[in-house]
């Protein structure tokens, strides 16, 4: 044997040597034949390519190093890069380095193509009204589920050439491999037992060696399956999360509209995106392998059993499958429904905790801990009850499942595996041929034993595959629950994005989302409202509440406007319509195209502070990379802070501009508002809508802020109830007029008509003041008289009467209360006179005042706020 193998080895070496010699000779002869010039040129080409490759490698190394440095910087400044093709490059910390990730935004066309899947599902799917799953559509394994899953698959696996498709193919190959290995193991098992019974030591040992080798391959295959399953799950999640983020956070402001206008997914979008999506992806990836494997197992093992046991056994097997699955189906609780309800309650519980964290300070001031605990406990109890109900239903089901699938099927399997022994005529070809083959070796009994072991193992594997299949069917219906949640989220987002609100029932409800007929014009140099009703929207399909019947006004560059009026009259609503948060139900709204630089900027009533560094707070919504693109430096930021009197802020923190804090809690109310004005000065828009943006700022600084903004060329549209701000504006829009409070008045500040109106009101106040003086005199008279009465009464005679105005509030008569009110009015009027005189000084007696109101009549009324 040894001599044979040495001989074989030397023959192989000789063959390799001959092969090398042949090709070396061939190259040499070719070289000999080539001219000197060709050789020289080839040598030069070789040198050039070596130099070029070296240079390429050097550049690549340099680029990588620069990239790494940039990555570190971007991670530190919490920023990213915008690429020319619209994608973004972000760097994320990875071990002790940074990893570069390029994120491509979903194309508009993709959204449009998918809209059909999510908004117009086929009638058969049971997703009734053609938009989103109707409340009657129960989550479960049905046609609706198939449609939902296939729609989501078109996002998760967009192309056959995508990474996800490759991963799925890899997973399929591993699954097939595992099934094949199971088959080989079953056969080997039988052989080992046969050899053991026959007392054949050599074959038995060889069998053991094969067993160990198979074990290694099988273990590797199993861990590969787990690994690929994880990869598939992450890949699915990445695709879906990016898709949802692109749909949720875009210029259409869907993140606002989905909660405030649509309401299709309630308030727990976070639960949908963070929890349900993760569970869905894990379940989908797991299902592919755990349903795919038993399925392949069942097909292959059944075929093998058919060969060994014949058609009779196979028919028996199928009848057993059908009978047991129909029984189990009847016994199964509504897994999908339970999962969907549980996920919804989990979402409510989570969002309550989120609210508590976001409003901790306010709640703490009110001492509302107990009340909040009550809310939380209530929702948790509901969650607990739902879970308990679910587990109870499951326990019952699992008991029957075990009984039928594990023990029933095993007993049935033994019976079938005994067929070749007791009823050889009924068993298949393999069963009949095998005894003959074994007889040749003189081991009929052992042949039977081997067959029995093989069949039994197949049977057990089959039972195992069946059990897993049944378990997976249960998981499938849980997956249906998550699928329905994710599908609902995406279809709701599509509906909001496309503003696709069909008319329902009898027709449009007035000012519902299907009754939006107005136009929003972007790209106008100014702000214009033409016959626009201001409507507070209701959740679809309800109609909204009209706040202002029809608003018409125009603000051009330099025409600073002050909007005033009582609370809740719709001042901020105007900003919401202009910003595109609320629909333009009728008429025309014109506004600058962009938000921010050279466009329009809105400062909301509650200042928002983002996560990130101090720098991020000033430049929000820009990032550090945008700041660099705009060639702004930290010096510029410092200048901006100087202007709003926050120059001390960077020095307060060790990391200065890179300091990271919970800014919401670190800054005071006034500081937050000044920081918001700093943002305005950083972005320098042409128009700024400031909604009560300086209410917490001291009045001396407030004036400076307004003047600075104006000097920077920003046209201000201010919402405020502070009359003192009038002097910084040219026009005023007063809301809440008329008997029903739905009329308005727009006019130039300081015009003769406005002054006339102010004077009329002042004279009214003066008249009331005179009345007050008369009442004062009368009051003094009464007090004097009373004092005399008391002296005569002799009890408190020496008590001096309290001077006017020092009476205890509880002792005031109605008349006195009225007098005090009049006095307050008087002081307010005096203040207004001051303001008015200021405005007059600024504008002189200007003409051409615009006066309109909701009914379109000329208006002479001016309301002093
Ligand atoms: N998201 C919303 N959905 C529906 N109605 C809303 C919404 N936000 C506000 N409203 C309602 O719209 C009306 C006008 O609100 P708005 O915020 O414009 O008042 P405002 O005049 O700015 O009051 P304030 O001076 O108190 O700020 C209010 O009755 C309010 O309840």
From TrEMBL:
<feature type="domain" description="ABC transporter">
    <location>
        <begin position="527"/>
        <end position="762"/>
    </location>
</feature>
<keyword id="KW-0813">Transport</keyword>
<dbReference type="GO" id="GO:0140359">
    <property type="term" value="F:ABC-type transporter activity"/>
</dbReference>
<dbReference type="InterPro" id="IPR036640">
    <property type="entry name" value="ABC1_TM_sf"/>
</dbReference>
<dbReference type="GO" id="GO:0015910">
    <property type="term" value="P:long-chain fatty acid import into peroxisome"/>
</dbReference>
<dbReference type="InterPro" id="IPR011527">
    <property type="entry name" value="ABC1_TM_dom"/>
</dbReference>
<keyword id="KW-0067">ATP-binding</keyword>
<dbReference type="GO" id="GO:0005524">
    <property type="term" value="F:ATP binding"/>
</dbReference>
<dbReference type="GO" id="GO:0005324">
    <property type="term" value="F:long-chain fatty acid transmembrane transporter activity"/>
</dbReference>
<dbReference type="InterPro" id="IPR003439">
    <property type="entry name" value="ABC_transporter-like_ATP-bd"/>
</dbReference>
<feature type="region of interest" description="Disordered">
    <location>
        <begin position="794"/>
        <end position="865"/>
    </location>
</feature>
<dbReference type="InterPro" id="IPR027417">
    <property type="entry name" value="P-loop_NTPase"/>
</dbReference>
<dbReference type="InterPro" id="IPR050835">
    <property type="entry name" value="ABC_transporter_sub-D"/>
</dbReference>
<keyword id="KW-0812">Transmembrane</keyword>
<feature type="transmembrane region" description="Helical">
    <location>
        <begin position="40"/>
        <end position="57"/>
    </location>
</feature>
<dbReference type="GO" id="GO:0006635">
    <property type="term" value="P:fatty acid beta-oxidation"/>
</dbReference>
<dbReference type="GO" id="GO:0042760">
    <property type="term" value="P:very long-chain fatty acid catabolic process"/>
</dbReference>
<feature type="compositionally biased region" description="Polar residues">
    <location>
        <begin position="852"/>
        <end position="865"/>
    </location>
</feature>
<dbReference type="GO" id="GO:0016887">
    <property type="term" value="F:ATP hydrolysis activity"/>
</dbReference>
<dbReference type="InterPro" id="IPR017871">
    <property type="entry name" value="ABC_transporter-like_CS"/>
</dbReference>
<dbReference type="GO" id="GO:0005778">
    <property type="term" value="C:peroxisomal membrane"/>
</dbReference>
<keyword id="KW-1133">Transmembrane helix</keyword>
<keyword id="KW-0472">Membrane</keyword>
<dbReference type="Pfam" id="PF00005">
    <property type="entry name" value="ABC_tran"/>
</dbReference>
<protein>
    <recommendedName>
        <fullName>ABC transporter domain-containing protein</fullName>
    </recommendedName>
</protein>
<dbReference type="InterPro" id="IPR003593">
    <property type="entry name" value="AAA+_ATPase"/>
</dbReference>
<dbReference type="GO" id="GO:0007031">
    <property type="term" value="P:peroxisome organization"/>
</dbReference>
<keyword id="KW-0547">Nucleotide-binding</keyword>
<dbReference type="Pfam" id="PF06472">
    <property type="entry name" value="ABC_membrane_2"/>
</dbReference>
<comment type="similarity">
    <text>Belongs to the ABC transporter superfamily. ABCD family. Peroxisomal fatty acyl CoA transporter (TC 3.A.1.203) subfamily.</text>
</comment>
């Amino acid at each position: 044997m040894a001599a044979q193998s040495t001989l074989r080895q030397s023959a192989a070496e000789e063959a390799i040597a001959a092969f090398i010699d042949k090709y070396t000779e061939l190259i040499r002869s070719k070289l000999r034949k080539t001219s000197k010039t060709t050789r020289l040129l080839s040598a030069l080409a070789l040198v050039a390519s070596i130099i070029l490759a070296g240079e390429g490698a050097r550049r690549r190394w340099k680029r990588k190093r620069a990239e790494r440095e940039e990555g570190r910087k971007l991670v530190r400044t919490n920023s990213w890069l915008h690429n020319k093709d619209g994608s973004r490059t972000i760097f994320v910390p990875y071990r002790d380095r940074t990893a570069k990730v390029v994120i491509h935004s979903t194309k508009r066309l993709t959204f449009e193509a998918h809209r059909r899947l999510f908004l117009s599902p086929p009638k058969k799917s049971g997703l009734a009204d053609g938009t989103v799953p109707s409340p009657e559509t129960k989550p479960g394994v049905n046609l609706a589920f198939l449609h939902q899953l296939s729609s989501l698959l078109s996002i998760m696996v967009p192309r056959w050439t995508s990474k996800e498709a490759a991963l799925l193919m890899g997973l399929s190959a591993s699954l097939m491999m595992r099934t094949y290995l199971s088959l080989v193991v079953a056969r080997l098992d039988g052989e080992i037992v046969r050899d053991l019974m026959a007392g054949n030591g050599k074959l038995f040992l060889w069998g053991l060696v094969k067993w160990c080798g198979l074990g290694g391959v099988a273990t590797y295959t199993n861990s590969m399956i787990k690994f690929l399953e994880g990869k598939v799950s992450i890949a699915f999640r990445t695709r879906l999360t990016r898709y949802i983020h692109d749909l949720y956070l875009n210029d259409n402001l869907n993140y606002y509209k989905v909660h405030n206008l649509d309401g299709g997914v309630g308030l727990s979008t976070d639960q949908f995106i963070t929890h349900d999506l993760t569970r869905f992806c894990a379940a989908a990836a797991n299902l592919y392998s755990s349903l795919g494997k038993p399925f392949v197992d069942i097909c292959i093992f059944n075929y093998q059993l058919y060969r060994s046991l014949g058609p009779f056994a196979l028919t028996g097997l199928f009848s057993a499958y059908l009978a047991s699955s129909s029984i189990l189906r009847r016994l199964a609780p509504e897994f999908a429904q339970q999962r969907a309800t549980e996920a919804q309650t989990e979402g409510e519980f989570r969002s309550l905790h989120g609210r508590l964290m976001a409003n901790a300070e306010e709640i703490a001031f009110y001492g509302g801990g107990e009340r909040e605990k009550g809310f939380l406990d209530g929702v948790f109890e509901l969650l607990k009850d739902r879970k308990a109900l679910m587990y109870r239903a499951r326990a019952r089901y699992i008991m029957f499942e075990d009984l039928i699938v594990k023990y029933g099927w095993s007993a049935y399997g033994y019976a079938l595996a005994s067929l070749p022994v007791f009823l050889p005529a009924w068993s298949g070809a393999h069963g009949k041929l095998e005894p003959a083959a074994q007889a040749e070796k003189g081991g009929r009994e052992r042949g039977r034993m081997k067959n029995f072991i093989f069949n039994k193992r197949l049977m057990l594997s089959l039972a195992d595959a069946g059990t897993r299949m049944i378990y997976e069917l249960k998981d499938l219906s849980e997956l249906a629950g998550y699928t329905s949640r994710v599908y609902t989220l995406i279809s709701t987002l599509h509906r909001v994005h496309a503003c696709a609100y069909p008319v329902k029932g009898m027709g449009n409800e007035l000012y519902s989302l299907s009754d939006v007929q107005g136009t929003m014009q972007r790209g106008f140099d100014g702000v214009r409202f033409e016959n626009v009703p201001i409507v507070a929207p209701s959740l679809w399909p309800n109609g909204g509440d009209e706040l202002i019947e029809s608003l018409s006004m125009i603000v051009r560059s330099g025409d600073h406007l002050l909007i005033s009026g009582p609370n809740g009259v719709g001042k901020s609503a105007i900003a919401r319509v202009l910003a595109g948060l609320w629909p333009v139900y009728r008429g025309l709204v014109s506004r600058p195209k962009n938000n921010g630089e050279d466009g329009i900027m809105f400062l909301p009533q509650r200042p928002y502070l983002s996560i990130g560094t101090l720098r991020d707070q000033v430049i929000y919504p820009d990032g550090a990379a945008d700041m660099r693109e705009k060639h702004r430096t930290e010096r510029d930021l410092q200048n901006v802070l100087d202007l709003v009197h926050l120059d001390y802020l960077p020095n307060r923190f060790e990391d200065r501009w890179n300091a990271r804090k919970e800014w919401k809690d670190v800054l005071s109310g006034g500081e937050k508002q000044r920081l918001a004005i700093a943002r305005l000065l950083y972005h320098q828009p042409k128009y700024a809508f400031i909604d009560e943006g300086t209410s917490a700022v001291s009045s001396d600084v407030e004036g400076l802020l307004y003047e600075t903004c104006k000097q920077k060329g920003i046209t201000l549209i201010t919402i405020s109830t502070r009359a003192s701000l009038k002097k910084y504006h040219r026009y005023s829009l007063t809301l809440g007029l008329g008997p029903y409070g739905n009329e308005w008045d727009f006019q130039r500040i300081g015009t003769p008509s406005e002054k006339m109106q102010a004077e009329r009101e002042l004279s009214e106040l003066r008249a009331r003041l005179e009345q007050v003086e008369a009442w004062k005199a009368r009051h003094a008279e009464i007090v004097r008289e009373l004092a005399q009465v008391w002296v005569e009464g002799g009890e408190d005679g020496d008590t001096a009467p309290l001077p006017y105005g020092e009476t205890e509030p509880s002792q005031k008569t109605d008349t006195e209360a009225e007098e005090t009110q009049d006095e307050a009015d008087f002081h307010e009027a005096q203040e207004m006179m001051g303001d008015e005189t200021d405005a007059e000084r600024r504008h002189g007696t200007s003409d051409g005042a615009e006066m309109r109101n909701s009914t379109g009549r000329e208006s002479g009324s001016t309301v002093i706020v």
